[in-house]
Design brief:
It is a single chain. This protein is mainly alpha-helical. The chain folds into two domains: 1-94, no CATH class; 109-402, P-loop containing nucleotide triphosphate hydrolases (Rossmann fold, 3-Layer(aba) Sandwich). The protein has 20 helices and five strands. A five-stranded parallel sheet has the order 2-3-1-4-5, sandwiched between helices.
Length: 409
C-alpha cells in the first residue's frame, strides 16, 4: 500500500516545507531495520496504518510544526504517515470535486449528543442506540478518512479492514470500519483544533485540552472555524446516512454544550456518569494504551495521572456549569451502573423524556443487542489506597453531586 514514491504528485512548495519540517523533527525512513519482521497485530493501526495516515500532507506538516518533535522509536509511524499523506492526495482532490457541492447543500437534522467523561459507558450507549435504523452516525472509516471516505467506501475500505483490530485494545469492545466512532477523530484529521491531537502528541495534551476542549485562550475566529469544520464532518455523515438524524458520541463535547447549542438549539443530549474511582482507573488504562498504540511521543505515568485528574475536574465542572443551558426536555442523565444493569429500560426512559420517535419499532433491536452483550466481561479495576485518596481529594465534588459513596471502592 505504501510502495509509492513518497512525494510524487506533491507541489514543489509543499515538498520544500515538508523537507524543512522533517529535518527539524528528525523524521526519516529507517533504512537499517527489517520491516518485514514488524509486529502488526495489536499496533496494526499505529505502524501499518496510523489513524493520521489519511489526513492531508499539509495538515500533517502543520501538526508537526505545532507539536513536534517525534520520539526516535516512533519515526517509522511518522514516516508512513508522511508517505500516506502524499499517496492519498489525488483521492482527496477527486472527492472534493465530486461531492463538495452535495455536501454543502446537505441539511443536518437535530442530532442526539451522547456526552460524559471517557470510560463512563458512552461507547456502549452509542453502539446500543445505533441499533435503531432511524439514526445515522459517524463511522470509523469516516474518522480515518474524512476527506475521502465517500469516494473510498467501496474501493479503499476493503483494503483498510486488514489493518483494523477487531476489538479496542483498552476494553475489548468491538471495533470496525462501519461501526459508530467519535467524530472528534475526524476533526483531528482535518484541522488543528482538536484535543485528540493529544493522543499523538501527548506532551501538548494539556494545552490542547484547554484550547480545543474548553475553548479557553482561543480567539473567536478559531471557534468559528472549528464550527465550520465540525458542520462539514456532520454534513458528510448525514449524506452518508441518507439524511437520518445523527447519534454523536464525543466525550470532549461534554465541555462544549454552549457551542453545540449555538449550532443546534433543538439538539438532544444524553449524559452518562460513573463511580469516579472506576473512571479513574479505567481512564488510566485508556491513556496508557492509546499513547502506546498511536502516540508519537511518550510521557511518564505520573504525567498521565496528573492529566487525568485535571481533565476530569475541568470537564465535569464545565458540564455542571453549562448543563442548565440545555432547554427542558432535551437532556437525560444516566448512570453507567443503571445502563449496564437494565439497558432497555434506560433507553425507554430516554426515548420518553426526549420525545424521540420510534420506540416500539426499535425496541426488539435493542433487546437483541443487549442480549448479545451479556457475555461481555468488563475490565476489573482496583485502586491503591494512595490513588483512592488522591481521587477523592481531587474529585470529591463529583462524588457529592452524583451521590456516589466515597467508601465504594
Amino acid at each position: 500500500m505504501f510502495g509509492v514514491p513518497p512525494l510524487g504528485g506533491v507541489r514543489f512548495s509543499e515538498r520544500v516545507r515538508l523537507k524543512a519540517v522533517l529535518q527539524t523533527t528528525e523524521i526519516c525512513m529507517p533504512l537499517d531495520r527489517d520491516t518485514a519482521d514488524l509486529d502488526l497485530d495489536v499496533r496494526g493501526l499505529a505502524v501499518a496504518f496510523h489513524p493520521l495516515a489519511m489526513n492531508s500532507l499539509r495538515h500533517w506538516i502543520r501538526l508537526l510544526r505545532l507539536h513536534g518533535p517525534i520520539d526516535r522509536d516512533k519515526r517509522l509511524s511518522a514516516s508512513l504517515i508522511t508517505l500516506a499523506g502524499a499517496f492519498w492526495t489525488p483521492l482527496r482532490a477527486l472527492e472534493s470535486a465530486l461531492f463538495d457541492r452535495r455536501v454543502a447543500g446537505t441539511e443536518i437534522a437535530n442530532p442526539v449528543f451522547i456526552i460524559g467523561h471517557w470510560r463512563t459507558g458512552t461507547t456502549f450507549l452509542h453502539y446500543l442506540l445505533s441499533q435503531d435504523p432511524a439514526f445515522g452516525f459517524v463511522p470509523l472509516f469516516q474518522t480515518l478518512a474524512p476527506a475521502s471516505f465517500l469516494l473510498g467506501r467501496r474501493s479503499i475500505k476493503p483494503l483498510m479492514k486488514r489493518f483494523v483490530p477487531e476489538t479496542r485494545p483498552m476494553d475489548n469492545m468491538d471495533l470496525g470500519l462501519d461501526l459508530p466512532q467519535e467524530e472528534e477523530y475526524a476533526l483531528c484529521n482535518l484541522c488543528p483544533y482538536s484535543f485528540y491531537a493529544g493522543w499523538y502528541f501527548p506532551r501538548d495534551m494539556r494545552l490542547l485540552f484547554e484550547r480545543y476542549g474548553l475553548f479557553e485562550g482561543v480567539e473567536d475566529h478559531v471557534v468559528e472555524e472549528w464550527k465550520e469544520i465540525y458542520l462539514g464532518v456532520l454534513k458528510k455523515a448525514t449524506l452518508h446516512a441518507e439524511g437520518r438524524p445523527l447519534l454523536l458520541k464525543n466525550p470532549v463535547n461534554t465541555a462544549r454544550i454552549r457551542w453545540l447549542l449555538e449550532l443546534f438549539p433543538n439538539a438532544r443530549f444524553i449524559h452518562l456518569c460513573r463511580n469516579p474511582y472506576a473512571v479513574y482507573k479505567s481512564t488510566q488504562l485508556l491513556h496508557r494504551t492509546a499513547i502506546n498504540w498511536v502516540g508519537l511521543q511518550r510521557i511518564s505515568d505520573e504525567e498521565i495521572a496528573a492529566n487525568i485528574l485535571l481533565f476530569y475536574r475541568q470537564l465535569v465542572q464545565r458540564y455542571f456549569d453549562h448543563k442548565d443551558l440545555i432547554p427542558n426536555g432535551q437532556l437525560v442523565e444516566m448512570r453507567y451502573e443503571d445502563l449496564v444493569q437494565r439497558p432497555v429500560a434506560e433507553l425507554e426512559r430516554a426515548y420518553r423524556e426526549l420525545s424521540l420517535p420510534g420506540w416500539e419499532a426499535a425496541r426488539p433491536r435493542f433487546e437483541a443487542y443487549a442480549a448479545r452483550q451479556q457475555a461481555y466481561i468488563a475490565n476489573r479495576h482496583s485502586l491503591s489506597p494512595e490513588d483512592s485518596a488522591r481521587v477523592l481529594r481531587e474529585w470529591g465534588f463529583a462524588f457529592e453531586r452524583w451521590d456516589y459513596d466515597p467508601a465504594s471502592l
